[in-house]
Write a structure and sequence with these properties.
The protein has 138 residues and is α+β, with helices and mostly antiparallel strands. The protein has a domain of 67 residues: Trypsin Inhibitor V, Chain A (2-Layer Sandwich). 24% of the residues lie in helices and 16% in strands. A three-stranded mixed sheet has the order 2-5-3, with helices on one face. A two-stranded antiparallel ribbon has the order 1-4. The termini are far apart.
């Protein structure tokens, strides 16, 4: 019976030790954690510039702009001219409004097809903003 008592005692000791071990702190397993960081670099550059003195700028006096005429003389010798050629001449003189009046009552569309038979106020100085009336025929 002594052997049985020893075995029972050993078992109790073993149970006691295991219950004590259950209450004791256990070792914590090692945890590996991977952290990825992105680094941003800021670069500050300092430059030294040596400036040469600036040469003085010479500005020429502005050239006078030709004044736009406010009046012009209506040409007098225009009978027999092509209407398109007369239109170019009147535009060069500065006239802005030219009215073409057909002797036959037709509408004047293509000036190169018409011949000048007369012009109102020939040889008279007139404001370039006022209409010039040209009479034409085909």
């Amino acid at each position: 019976m002594k052997l049985t008592t020893t075995l029972i005692s050993g078992a109790l000791v073993c149970l006691t030790l295991s219950s004590c071990a259950a209450g004791s702190p256990q070792s914590v397993p090692a945890v590996t954690q991977t952290v990825t960081q992105t680094a941003t670099a800021t670069v500050t550059a300092i430059a030294t510039v040596t400036a040469e003195p600036i040469a003085p700028v010479v500005v020429a006096a502005p050239t006078p702009v030709a004044a736009v005429p406010t009046t012009a003389v209506i040409p007098g010798n225009v009978v027999g001219m092509n209407a398109e050629a007369l239109d170019d001449d009147l535009s060069a003189l500065g006239f802005k409004k030219v009215v073409y009046n057909s002797d036959t009552g037709k509408t004047v569309l293509l000036l190169s097809n018409w011949t000048v038979t007369g012009i109102d106020n020939a040889g008279v100085e007139q404001a370039v903003d006022k209409a010039v009336v040209v009479h034409v025929t085909k």
